[in-house]
## 1
Amino acid sequence: MRASKMVKVGDISIGGGNPIVIQSMTNTDTRDVEKTVEQINNLVRTGCEIVRVSLPDLECAKKVKEIKERISVPLVGDIHFDYRIAIESIKNGIDKIRINPGNIRDPSKVLEIVKIAKERSVPIRVGANTGSLPKDLEHLPREQALGEAALREVKLLEKHGFNDIVISVKSSDAIETIQANRYVAKQVDYPLHVGVTEAGTIYNSLIKSSIALSTLIMDGLVDTLRISISGNPVNEVISARKLLTFLHLREGPDVVACPTCARSVFDVEKVALAIEEKIAKIDKKITVSVLGCIVNGIGEGKEADVGIAGTKGGVVLFYKGQIVGTYPYEEGINKLEEYVKELTK
Ligand code: SF4
């Protein structure tokens, strides 16, 4: 595990050996406080630990105060080009800002941001995305160009004595994301915010993000993560929690379900999806198995906390390794749901 520095974002610690922090980002208009707060609170209920909002103008930055009063999670402001938005958002209580000093251009304006960020202990995330690489680095191998672009931003902050930094290097390509993060991790010890950028809709994102994040987590390089998915950001948080659960880094639910075949006697997918939805937000380690027949159903059922397996005319129900009984299909599904409810209390 890489020994990264620790950075505090509100009451959440990133890096320094702390557990990996789950982040997501709203896709509402930040000026619409009602909708933004509603989405943030949905994200938090799902398990999001830090939320980022886009602050494209000063009006948005002014809304930060109102938003902060109604949420219980550290808030990050995403800012580009205009140093005044960064300063305004800090004055209004933002917990962290994401800027690239390089695109603010005037060093005296960067210094103004750094001064107030230091005063208020607001960390800054800097980084590079493949979508906006500096022209003069384009001749380098992509991972190196990404890494150097981010390190250049880091140096602009360090020049002003600012070290409360988180770094991100993101590509829409999973392999490039892995290589770029490894490149940066070799050179500095600031915590890394990791994710595949513009990862796409759910299938693409989940596969790309799993490749990149699992590899980098195994390398010990991930301090905080975002799984970027087009659409409802709640899916980002559900996916991030599943990833950390399946990597045995968090307690969480798992639904084991078979792909079905000619032996299946009930609609496995429908039952599994319904259970998944019911237990998605639970923090306890719970395994539910839903198998179409008894070929593998008995073994899986006995290993799960609760499970069913299809059999002639109904389903066999298991609870904590024991067969509870055999029931007609409908009754068996209802009983399974009752047991799941009991387990999640
Ligand atoms: S558990 Fe049974 S129904 Fe499901 S895929 Fe395996 S053999 Fe087919």
## 2
Amino acid sequence: MVTKTILGICGSPRKQATEHVLTEALNMMEEKGYETELFTVRGKDISPCRNCDYCLRKKECLLKDDMYQLYPLFKDVQGIIMATPIYNGGISAQIKAVMDRTRAAAAVDLDFLKHKVGIAISVGGDRAGGQELAIQQIMTFYILNGVIPVSGGPFGSNLGANFWSQDTLEGVKEDEEGFRSLKKTIKRFDEFLEKYQNE
Ligand SMILES: Cc1cc2nc3c(=O)[nH]c(=O)nc-3n(C[C@H](O)[C@H](O)[C@H](O)COP(=O)(O)O)c2cc1C
């Protein structure tokens, strides 16, 4: 059996709650036999998309920054985990820049993410600070790029994994409900990968 690979993309500029939770998620996937790869925006230079449409003409992005480290990683992965901190009730500007800059990958191959399976993780400082909206923003990105969006299901993980960090690393580690939502999401992620990614 070919080992499947999961790509985790962290949208926090800090090594704190979001990166911790995403690392835990990738560890859970490794325990299930997957290979994993973590890409973080932390310390990276990733500019917002300029809508110059250079990519549509030239099949590459004009902005030669650290997004070029991410483009090749999409190629050989079966599953994606996008994790974002909550900024002003939604996703971080950093993860939004990553999403928008994938326009260049789509310019090369419109189906660059098609049929992959995706889950979302959101981490807010407040208990209800916009986690569900952020997950919906990630799910929207998945849907419009042909990624199969997966949650942990009803009774604990309706849209995916969402965490309350109380603005600290220690806070997120104490969030038992958050980890329950993550475990449920990982369980279904594995099921969907098994069912839809067997080629
Ligand atoms: C600009 C900014 C806006 C924020 N807005 C929210 C918010 O609307 N809701 C919320 O729950 N937390 C908000 N937070 C708090 C972060 O989501 C929280 O500290 C989170 O743990 C950050 O992730 P990190 O620990 O991975 O850096 C905000 C933080 C920043 C820097």
## 3
Amino acid sequence: MKTILKSLAVIALAFSLTNCGEKKETDAMGNPTDATPEVVVETENAEDAQLALGAELFKGKGTCIACHKAAEKTVGPSMKEIATIYKEKGASIAKFINEEGEPLVDAAQYEVMKANFVITKAMTQEERDALDAYMMSFQ
Ligand code: HEC
């Protein structure tokens, strides 16, 4: 029994010695150089993140870009025109694309736009808000 304890103590000692002996790379100041580098978190502000999401949805999943350009009318009114009118009237694009509003820009073409509500109503509120913020940034 004693020998077992003894050998355990030796093993433990050996372990602690090898651990201590493990030399860490240090720089001139003696600071360890192999320390995990601090992760620099991009502190994008919330507004930028929302606009980025809006842009992504506008061009991607939303397919909005097929009919809406920044400043010129194509199939649909330009974003500039839409944003200007929505601002003037204090209306919400997020609500409009959730079919909770009336067409304020080009009521005659509403049916063409309405077809997209299948996509936008399946989005989350956050996504609709992001599309809203993105389009409103084109005033
Ligand atoms: C197939 C073409 C097409 C696509 C794709 C499209 N739109 Fe439109 N959009 C239109 C047309 C045409 C109008 C004009 C009718 C109207 O004003 O409702 C319009 C109008 C709008 C308006 C102004 C509505 C108003 O008050 O009159 C908003 C806001 C809008 N679209 C947002 C979007 C967003 C967001 C997407 C992507 C999810 C999108 N559109 C995709 C054709 C499209």
## 4
Amino acid sequence: MGNGSERYAVTPRILILGGTREARLLAERLVADDLAVPVTSLAGATDSPGALPGEVRVGGFGGVSGLTAHLWQEGYAAVVDATHPFAARITANAAAACEATAVPRLTLVRPVWEPALGEHWVDVADETAAAQALRSVRVSANQRVFLALGRQRVGPFAKIAGVNFLLRTTDPIDPPFEGCEVIVGRGPFSLEAEEALFRRERVVALVCRNSGGEGDAKLEAARAVKATIVMIRRPALITQSEGANATGGATALDVDAALSWIVECLRRR
Ligand SMILES: NC(=O)c1ccc[n+]([C@@H]2O[C@H](COP(=O)([O-])OP(=O)(O)OC[C@H]3O[C@@H](n4cnc5c(N)ncnc54)[C@H](OP(=O)(O)O)[C@@H]3O)[C@@H](O)[C@H]2O)c1
């Protein structure tokens, strides 16, 4: 009979706050590299989120106190916050709960999009400021402004008279205001198709949030047609530099860097 220590060699579990492509890639790599069991947490907004390796839990935790209790209960080796850069509440909650429980935390955040030289790029704080910025963009009657925003965020644009807007939604909806046409489409979109759409619809300005990441078709299409880009910056909490971030935890800009952090974290246990 052995000394029994092997019975306690439990594979560490990592809580991944997910809902993004990066969260899925990280879960896949943790399993493929046999590093840890990923437990991906989803908010529950999507009906069919697609298969994920490891364990999956769905639904809110119940604020900071709920997440804190969950962390005490589950004994994770670490938490990786791989939520969308605009999902600020869960990021703040994760920071507070990890601090309370002393569970190591990493924020996996996509690099922000930056303007290229010579581009007409307007950096704004929110949708209201974006609508304000559009007032100085010349949009003639046969041209459009493309709103790459959720339908619940387009209210401020309703007040701009004489500008035609194009809003893309995943499910058919009634136009949210006069002068706003809705098209239905579910990404990912190819650059070719997106550029063709921007040319066909004579898009002269794009309004979007700085979600970041590589190869974004709408951004590249806007660049190709030389449209004005009105970019809504991220919540102040979500910074993008490697190392410490505004929430006091560590930051990684890609899945490889997140994996290195996890390896180091497990080594130190
Ligand atoms: N915001 C976007 O544009 C966007 C885009 C793509 C994907 N997503 C994904 O959709 C989710 C919701 O986004 P949001 O902007 O509504 O977030 P949010 O405003 O930061 O969070 C709202 C509440 O939803 C719950 N929640 C959020 N993410 C969760 C997760 N991964 N697991 C468990 N509960 C979660 C939390 O509820 P409790 O307080 O009850 O714990 C949180 O307080 C995020 O996970 C995000 O990664 C968001």
